[in-house]
Design goal:
43% helix, globular
Length: 209
């Protein structure tokens, strides 16, 4: 796991931005790789979605365009160190905070205005190895409440339904699989979910359209 600059402050001009602080990141990577090899880093893109909503929840195109330079920079810097990127789109806090409610309309808009342009611009990069759709969704899924276990307080406040979660996973993973097909990558861009406990519902994605 690589924090970059700081949670929620790596991508977008209203944050610190990896483009502005790329020399700091280079120096940190030099230190981390001194005397040892790192093959992959896992890094959050949207985190709790503070940057996504800064530009308007109904305009993900603007959000993506304002983050694009930072994405380009982190891929270029990691390439210098021969390190692959495992990019996490959302943290569960994006949903529990209410910034990304994971409704069907929001998911569709995000895929069309943010994810597909991102895949078109960066999906063929060898440095980009995997896309994690969401980190620790169990904190916002209803089953967290069944035995008063992990995530129960958050889930009681702002839980999503299994239908919402399934649609989110199926739609985003479908777009990535379609990009793998269209871009003819030597190695497919992997799709993951950052579940931290073993009991987890797996969404069944529809066939790629």
């Amino acid at each position: 796991n690589y924090r970059g600059i700081e949670y929620g402050k790596n991508f977008g001009p209203q944050s610190g931005g990896v483009e502005r602080l790329k020399e700091q990141i280079r120096e940190e990577l030099r230190r981390l790789t001194q005397g040892k090899r790192i093959d992959y880093v896992r890094m959050g893109l949207l985190d709790d979605a503070r940057q996504l909503v800064s530009y308007g929840a109904d305009d993900y195109t603007g959000s993506y365009q304002r983050m694009k330079k930072d994405i380009e920079t982190i891929l270029s810097v990691l390439k210098e160190f021969d390190i692959k990127l495992h990019l996490t789109l959302f943290d569960y806090l994006a949903v529990s905070s209410g910034r990304f409610a994971m409704t069907k309309a929001e998911v569709d808009l995000f895929v069309e205005q943010f994810l597909k342009p991102f895949l078109s611009d960066f999906g063929s990069r060898k440095t980009l190895a995997a896309v994690e759709l969401i980190n620790e969704p169990e904190w916002i899924l209803p089953y967290s409440n069944e035995r008063g276990g992990v995530g129960s307080l958050i889930a009681k406040k702002r839980a999503i339904s299994y239908d919402q979660y399934d649609y989110f996973v199926a739609t985003l993973s479908g777009a990535i699989r379609q990009a793998n097909h269209d871009l003819k990558r030597e190695r497919d861009l992997r799709v993951t979910i950052g579940a931290s406990i073993t009991r987890h519902r797996v969404a069944t994605a529809p066939q790629v359209r």
